[in-house]
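Hey, resending since the last one bounced:
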Amino acid sequence: MTTRRSLLERGRALLGLAALGAMSSGAQGAEEIFETTKSEAEWKKLLTPEQFDVLRKEGTERAYTSPLNNEKRAGLFHCAGCDLPVYSSKAKFESGTGWPSFTASLDNAVRTKSDRSFLMSRTEVHCRRCGGHLGHIFDDGPPPTGKRHCLNGVALKFVPGAEQVSG
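The structure tokens again:
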């Protein structure tokens, strides 16, 4: 028989699990060291409030709000935090999700870590030079990789006509 007390205990247990998941969303083990480092105040001066929220606080922009979602020209997508080329337009595809999506990053451009926030297990992708949060990688992309790098447009800067280069 379900009592009010058992319902309250189950609710507390679920809240505890949610809090634990939120706390474990960061990297496990040692902190990664990046080539480009700045204080929070320096990042706030350099970035727009939206860019700061996504790149430095691992936020997410609203779906279908980025002009880069519709970008079709040849070129490179750079990290908006440190200007490192991270993705080629050759790897971009229309995922229908509302965010710019790519099958793969440029060589040596990004790093990943486990993200266990919101009671989910995902792979977070960030810039290997400054550590800026770019988005997440999912296993539902098209060939040749089967991956979908689902990125926040505000975390990127498009450079048209640029040649594909290694990061």
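The chain has one domain: 47-167.

Sorry for the duplicate.
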